Amino acid sequence: MKFDESYSGKVFIMSRSSEEEADAVIYGMPMDWTVSFRPGSRFGPNRIREASIGLEEYSPYLDRHLEEVQYHDAGDLLLPFGNAKRSIDIIEEYMDELLEKGKFPLGLGGEHLVTWPVLKAFHRKYSDLAVIHIDAHADLREEYEGEVLSHSTPIRKACEQFGAENIYSFGIRSGMREEFQYAEESGMYMAKYEVLEPLKEILPTLSGRPVYVTIDIDVLDPAYAPGTGTAEAGGISSKELLSAIHAIAASDVNVVGADLVEVAPAYDSSEKTQIAASKFIREMLLGFVK
């Protein structure tokens, strides 16, 4: 698998030197080929890595230190610019490799379409996979302006191929009327506007199941994360998203992989979006990788 060599040397804080010794692998999916508003999320993975240098290695929330988790930052996958189909094929092939090696994948996006090939690979390994989706947007469209490969479609694809009853969405506050109707009729779970309290209610029902967690940074209110392609007013705070990550970590679900997507650093000169994202990644590493 080819990685972008221009990102060599820029790794998430305390990354181990080799994949072989790692339990978890951080990898970047620098793709924003199908965005419908503002591009730039392809630069998100690298800026999250750079922001991580300012983090403490210790989490007071979890009483764990990054030295307690063996993880390797593999860098960014080399994706062909503008070619969505080939890009998602590359991501899926790489995910198959990681899962064959028994690694915990932690992806950095990139637009949200990059989650779709990852979910396909995971579902081949875990037939009873459940998906926790934390986002401002429903992502339940069948297509966007005629394109079935779109950042607005990955959760609809997951519902249709894995069973809508296995998909759990939180924080949703934007979408077409038809998307909300589909959510009601399909059997999927959707918590509108809120994340933490409905998540706490659902987690016991997923006890023991393999769960993939995908977080779109735009679930945060733009006051906390302006650096994203499709910001949506009325979101949650950074504190609430941290609490949601910690609730998942403290539960009995078996988190088998995760990603954080849609950081677009060009729209946040203050860097608070990427700083927050790097902290979420730290907490996901310490909370999800047992």
UniProtKB/TrEMBL annotation:
Annotated InterPro entries: Agmatinase-rel, Ureohydrolase, Ureohydrolase_dom_sf, Ureohydrolase_Mn_BS
Pfam family for this entry, one: Arginase
Domain of life (superkingdom): Bacteria
Cofactor binding annotation: Binds 2 manganese ions per subunit.
Family assignment from sequence similarity: Belongs to the arginase family. Agmatinase subfamily.
GO biological process: putrescine biosynthetic process from arginine, via agmatine; spermidine biosynthetic process
Enzyme class: hydrolase
Gene Ontology molecular-function annotations: agmatinase activity; metal ion binding
PANTHER family: ARGINASE/AGMATINASE, GUANIDINO ACID HYDROLASE, MITOCHONDRIAL
UniProt-listed Enzyme Commission number(s): 3.5.3.11
Keywords: Hydrolase, Manganese, Metal-binding, Polyamine biosynthesis, Putrescine biosynthesis, Spermidine biosynthesis
Cofactors named for this entry: Mn(2+)
Binding positions (Mn(2+)): 112, 135, 137, 139, 216, 218
Official protein name in the record: Agmatinase
Pathway in which the depicted protein is active: Amine and polyamine biosynthesis; putrescine biosynthesis via agmatine pathway; putrescine from agmatine: step 1/1
Known role: Catalyzes the formation of putrescine from agmatine.
Gene3D superfamilies: Ureohydrolase domain
Catalytic activity: agmatine + H2O = urea + putrescine
